[in-house]
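Hey, quick one: can you model this chain's 3D structure?
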Amino acid sequence: MAHVISDECVSCGACAATCPVSAISEGADKYVVDADTCIDCGACEGVCPTGAVKAE
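Sure thing. Here's the predicted structure for all 56 residues.
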């Protein structure tokens, strides 16, 4: 299961910088995870300052 980013995202980019497969990109209102690319490693979840990244 891919990770998802909730509306708590403040668009800091910490998750995107940490993703080893570049599955996270900046969306219109928040960062988004490409479910097809995500390897579910959880690296993004650990660096999010707001807790917006969760396992789906």
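One thing worth noting: Strands lie at 3-5, 24-26, 31-33, 53-55.
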